[in-house]
Write a structure and sequence with these properties.
It contains 18 helices and 34 strands. With about 775 residues, the chain is α+β, with helices and mostly antiparallel strands. About 40% of the residues are buried.
């Protein structure tokens, strides 16, 4: 009887000692050969198999005959000199992701049939590095596949190598009825063509409906055709624009029945395993329109004589772990969503309203469970100690940022007046101390104001505002940062696994690119891999108030890495912190819920702690929630673009003040500062000169004139075309090109590079 072969090592699957004991006439069984082929799909050629089983001479002829018999019997098939089981996936396969299992793991089918019967299911393993886009439902991916031994689960696991462009078998559009009675699909994505729908494929759609359609193969002449698959709702509804982004980015927005049932069945938490903090006057300070409140703050002077001038700052965070336990339907749905998504007209919450807006919201005057941290700071802003507590609290006041700030500025109202001296002033005094510590730490200080879209009751844009940045905002921000640091320090000290919020330093390539750019402005940036935020702050301070302030802020921002989640700590470069974890928003971020569970487990604070199963999956969870965060950002940005495009659709030919927000070989991206939306100016419309792209200087300049346009330039533009549902606008440049900073040097360098490029075979310049 032939001995069992595992086939998991390179070359001969048996050890040298095993081979020495095998007789010269050893021949593997059919099952051993089939098992080897299944477990080694990338080494399944005839020569590979012979080498693996140490077959020589006549045994190789025997193997050749056996493999031919297996092919004739339909057991094996041959693909590019490699053998494979019929109905088995190739080692590298194209897969379509169609859904998730009960634990939120992505599931896929092969894109092409691999044999008769139902296609095999593949459980997708996301790259642990977290780099690149995370796959989602509807994506087509290239993956390495590995057979599993679990008869009750998916037949394969897959490791994603590449994500292909969005599948084209289902796209979103707006159903339009033309004057002649024909039907068209207006695209909602910028690169999507207009489509024709024949009457038999209307599927009940009406004019103005947002629909999902399946495009047919494009003909040689005319527009491609499509058929309506689903009607998603009318665009006349108040929230139609964000609905486009929700569907386009595959954002879960309807809670399953079992999730709603669990949330409705939840009972208010009790004092079990909790300290009673209901007499402590914690207050919430949030935007005026906030619907849920997950953090509350309090501060008092430290009376310890050993800490003169010090303060004790307390942050209490909603105890979501009390209601959302690992393995429940609520937990699986929260992980799938990863975070709440905020649109101008709606919020797609991570948790149902019963949890997010009721049981976990720190409502004024109501008992609520919380996880609190009490931090002691010296007069210089250095944290001396901290401790975590699982408590029952009662918010003393629900305040808006502007309301709290007005009280400090001398205009208290009926709510802030009674707590001005006992609660608010001690908070501001504590913030002054924490700010000393922040100033000493020197985090990256970019001046990039955020804009907020205000809507009319019908869901259209009323106006776009830049909210004033108040000390009240900065106070809450710094209290939350310190609480996040304390959480990471505690978990690390207890050797408890966690998900960090990490932000890597700019890559060497980005540093060098930034350095070259700054040289064009006669600014220098020291070389070296160990960059510090203070070095960037020094550059920003030198241009404060100068004409190129916005330009330098923008370029420094683009040189930064993207923050993400990871169980491996590399620190947070932007905040200049060696350890940092998200702890303060578990209602809207799954990462924070993981940290809460870790604290509960590490400190023995009762039920709801992190389980061993969760710890084992932290790398996969970190990759997943980093992806959902990027998905949310893209959806929010797309929605803003569509709202502003629709708002400006009636202003064709109007002039606008703009700022150049991007420079490419094909043209200029411009942003309208008063609206925060972007449009494009093709290079072909810039005039009769031949424009050369200078990547170092982030500019386009004319070959003959040497004049051009640079990132962050303020210009005047005319709106010439709008595609509202695609969120796209095209502008015409009205401002004449100008001499560029350092143009004499950068001009000749870039011109030389352009000429060298054009002299290469197959390269062509574009005369504009």
């Amino acid at each position: 009887m032939a001995r069992r072969i595992t086939g998991r090592s390179h070359g001969d699957p048996r050890t040298a000692d095993t081979r020495a004991k095998v007789k010269d006439d050893y021949r593997p069984s059919r099952d051993e050969i089939l098992r080897y082929i299944a477990e080694n799909p990338d080494r399944a050629g005839k020569r590979d198999i012979a080498k693996a089983f140490a077959l020589r001479g006549d045994d190789r002829i025997w193997l050749k005959d056996l493999l031919r018999d297996l092919q004739d019997e339909g057991v094996l098939t041959k693909e590019r000199k490699r053998l494979a089981r019929v109905g088995a996936l190739s080692h590298v396969a194209v897969l379509d992701i169609f859904g998730r299992d009960g634990d939120g793991i992505l599931l896929a089918h092969p894109a092409e049939a691999v044999g008769p019967g139902e296609p095999p299911v593949v459980s997708i393993r996301v790259s642990r590095s977290g780099n690149g886009p995370a796959p989602g439902i509807g994506d087509r991916v290239l993956a390495k596949t590995f057979p599993t031994d679990d008869p009750s689960g998916p037949a394969y696991t897959g490791r994603v190598m590449k994500i292909f462009e969005k599948r084209t078998d289902a796209v979103l559009g707006v159903f339009r009825v033309l004057q002649d009675g024909s039907f068209r699909i207006e695209p909602v994505e910028r690169r999507q063509p207009e489509l024709i729908v024949d009457k038999e494929f209307q599927n009940g759609a009406k004019n103005g409906d947002l629909v999902e359609v399946e495009p047919a193969r494009a003909s040689r002449f005319g527009l491609p055709r499509a058929k309506v698959l689903n009607v998603l709702g009318s665009l006349t509804s108040e929230k139609a624009v964000s609905m486009i982004a929700i569907h386009a980015h595959d954002i879960p927005h309807i809670f399953p029945a079992d999730v709603i049932a669990e949330s409705e069945a939840a009972k208010p938490a009790t004092l079990d395993h909790r300290e009673d903090w209901r007499d402590l006057p914690l207050v919430t300070i949030d935007p005026a329109d906030a619907k849920d409140h997950d953090d509350a703050v309090f501060a008092t002077p430290d009376l310890d004589e050993k800490n003169p001038g010090g303060v004790i700052a307390t942050v209490a965070i909603a105890d979501v772990a009390a209601y959302v336990r690992h393995g429940t339907a609520l937990d699986r749905e929260a992980l799938k969503r990863g975070n709440s998504v905020y649109f101008p007209d709606r919020v797609v919450p991570m948790l149902p309203e019963r949890i997010s807006n009721d049981l976990c919201s720190l409502r004024e005057g109501q008992d609520r469970p919380a996880l609190a941290v009490r931090m002691t700071f010296s007069a210089e802003g250095r944290k001396i100690r901290h401790s975590f507590h699982r408590v029952m609290m009662k918010s003393a006041a629900k305040l808006a940022y502007s309301q709290a700030q007005a009280a400090i500025d001398g205009v208290p109202d009926d709510k802030t007046g009674p707590i001005l001296d006992t609660v608010l002033r001690p908070l501001w005094e504590a913030y002054a101390i924490l700010k000393r510590g922040r100033d000493g730490r020197q985090p990256l200080e970019l001046d990039l104001p955020e804009r907020k879209i205000l809507l009319k009751p019908d869901g259209t844009v009323d106006r776009v505002v830049v909210p004033e940045r108040l000390d009240a905002h900065k106070l809450i921000e710094e209290f939350m940062i310190q609480a996040n640091v304390a959480a990471a320090e505690t978990l690390e000290g207890k050797k408890q696994a966690l998900v960090y919020r990490v932000h890597d330093a700019p890559s060497l390539a980005k540093q060098e690119s930034l350095r070259e750019f700054l040289q064009t402005l006669s600014l220098s940036l020291a070389r070296g891999a160990q960059m510090r935020p203070s070095q960037f702050n020094g550059i920003l301070e030198r241009v404060r108030g100068a004409d190129n302030e916005a330009l330098v802020n923008e370029v420094v921002l683009r040189s930064q890495s993207q923050a993400e989640y990871s169980p491996k700590n590399i620190g947070h470069f932007g905040l200049n912190l060696s350890r940092y974890a998200h702890f303060t928003s578990p209602i809207r971020r799954y990462a924070d819920l993981i940290v809460h569970r870790g604290l509960i487990a590490a400190l023995g604070l009762g039920p709801g702690g992190l389980t061993q199963d969760e710890e084992a999956r932290l790398e996969d969870v970190a990759v997943l929630i980093s992806g959902t965060e990027r998905r949310a950002m893209a959806a929010e940005r797309d929605t803003v673009d569509r709202l502003i495009s629709a708002y400006l659709a009636e202003r064709i030919d109007d002039r606008f003040d703009a700022r150049i927000s991007g420079v490419t070989k094909s043209g200029l991206f411009v942003q309208l500062p008063q609206y925060g939306a972007d449009g494009f100016i093709p290079v072909s419309t810039l005039g009769g000169d031949y424009y050369i792209y200078d990547e170092t200087a982030r500019s386009l300049f004319g070959e003959r004139s040497g004049k051009g346009y640079q990132l962050a330039d303020r210009v005047e533009v005319r709106l010439v075309e709008v595609a509202p549902m695609a969120g796209a606008m095209r502008f015409e440049m009205l401002t004449d090109p100008k001499p560029l900073p350092g143009s004499s040097r950068s001009f000749h360098k870039a011109k030389g590079r352009a000429r060298a490029s054009q002299s290469r075979p197959g390269s062509r310049g574009r005369r504009r």
